[in-house]
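This part of the workshop introduces the protein records we will be handling. To make this concrete, we reproduce a full record directly below:
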Amino acid sequence: MSLSNAPREAAAPQALKADGLARLRAGDAAGAEAVLRRAADALPADPEPAFYLGNLLLTTGRPGEAADWFRRALARAPDVREVHNNLAAALLQAGDAGAAVLAAERGLAVDDGFAPLHNTLGNALAALDQMLRAAAHYDRAYAADPSLLSAAVNRANILRDLGRHDAAMALYAEVLDRDPTLAVAHLGLGLLHQAAGAMDLAEAALRRALAAAPGDAAALKNLAILLIGESRQHQALALLRDLTTLHPDLANGHADLGQLLQTLGRHDEAVAAFRRALAVDPADRCCLPFLMQSLMYQCDWKALPAVMSDVLADIRHGLAVGAVTTAPPFCLAATDAPGDLRLALARHYSARCIAAVAPLRARFARPPARPRGARLRVGYVSPDFRRHSVGISFRDLLAAHDRTGFEWHGYALRGDLADEMTDEFARRFDAFTPLDGLAADGAAGRIAADGIDVLIDLAGHTRHSAIEIFALSPAPVQAHYLGYGATLGADCIPYLITDPAHTPPAMAGHCSEHLVYLPDTFMAAPRAEIAGETWRRAECGLPEDGVVLACFNAHHKFDPGTFAVWMRLLAAVDGSVLWCRSGTDRATENLRRAAADAGIDPARLVFAAHLPHARHLARHRLADLALDTRHHAGGVTTLDALWAGVPVLTMAGTTQPSRTGASILTAAGLPGLITGSLADYEAEARRLASDPETLASLRRRLRATRDTCALFDQPRLARHLESAYMTMWRRHADGRPPASFHVPPLPR
């Protein structure tokens, strides 16, 4: 191909151009660039130096500069279609998809049959989310040049994203028949199988993509995501380390590595990975919420405030301007973010989850309503039917459910996480169905085929949740209960089951749901086994005579303001210690440093090693008073303390995560241990820690009422929930819309 129809220039400039092209062919990018710049100036009528210089700049990651040189080439050769195409590609790579569309359309005005231009225009339109127009141009590109397989792959990718999986599958197969080594086709096929829940086929296709293109970033990343979804974290970790080694300038590779390390509890390494991601691309701040989470786990209160401020500012700005924010709602749980921001983020996040399955709606149809039998069919959906805090809490409640008026179905989202408790759940449900390996429409179809009347989400916005399944409305009545306990912002789940202490009516405006108020507490409090052994304080590094203040909440729930209160308590009460769970080495180091900065001997912080739950509860009895955390109150940890006979002091804030302790203590008959501010919390903690007689009295009261209070009465909670389910169902059966209501309390 020759771009130049101009008369030949003088011999010296032509030699300069030839030298530049020779250097380009030889791989001497720096030398070629310098010589081609001189040749372009020396040959003002010749478009070739500018064109090839633009190509060089485009391939070396400088699309903005490349576009400028392509424009210079176009000024000298306006009718050359290749220049139009490469200008459009450069503009697209530079992030200006609108300008790329215009450039491609001008090129097609020159030659409407040039296949690469149709393909590039399709790419630009896809970047603008104009998928149907993009697909039309991919079709024209492939029809004009059947050897342009990238256009066919692009068309198949759009079919996949639109939910037209059969058509996409056929097109991928056609491409791979013609070129079995085409990595992008194997990659697209793998993503298609992954979306359909066929993980074995997806893994095989992604591995073929890597075999065809070793080190390909997209294949490495997506295979790692697949392996993470199957709880093969350490295999995924190796892939992500390869990804960041081979592609060190890929910011989201470092961010993905950080998220996996965070999941594995390796927060020090996670922080380093997140910081590398931000160093590579400071403008890509998607990893900031996750960096904030790991800093919380480290109790790094020097670095945390600036990061937290940035996260909250980014969320507010993104929501205000309608931009996509990837921050998960759970990241706000242990912050002081107000209720209106929490609701706005929950709505935004749920809308993204729901939009992701919009293409599946066309192929999902709930079967006709079954004739109502004698029993209401209730389904519980959870990733935590296993040895997990939710599973431990829910197990006794399930056992207490009525089997005469109700039929109970369990749907496990993560069968790969199954353990011995999963087998117990399978026995206790009337029917138990693993949903792992199924796409959202397949899972929803399974639930709908079972004729579920009331479907309960037990996960909310926690890890491995499945809002996407509920978005397809597989049951006529849907609600959230227990696992998240806060607003989901999802219209497909119109009910939130709570209680007046946890979500007072004044907070209803910060919830998208209609509120179903249980009379005692929404918390399911198990009657856990306590080991028969008797512990001595010396065995745990505790003083024999001093006051033991305990907080076994996870360290990410700690905040510097509450910790400062705890340190002032230690200063005020001679011989007292703070007893915490063990955490990362960095968290322990940071907490001890914070104690020293407050004038407290770091040795007065005692860290308890992990023990099996029954043994931990027996050990827990050594504490005199448990102290709750402020922004994200304890749930199971508070139940553990009370069941072990240890009184708990809490603060009731203005958000749902801060009020779990208030809900629990109300049902335990201990409202006097609920404070309304940090100052009141400190004053009451000091009073109790200085008054051993009052503490002893509280402990006696707990022992006397533990077996009879509403908190640990699982049959009573089960009856209240069943009443709630029946009320929700009757409203639906009567044709009435969802509405908030209070469940009447049973007689004690």
In short: The longest strand covers residues 376-382.
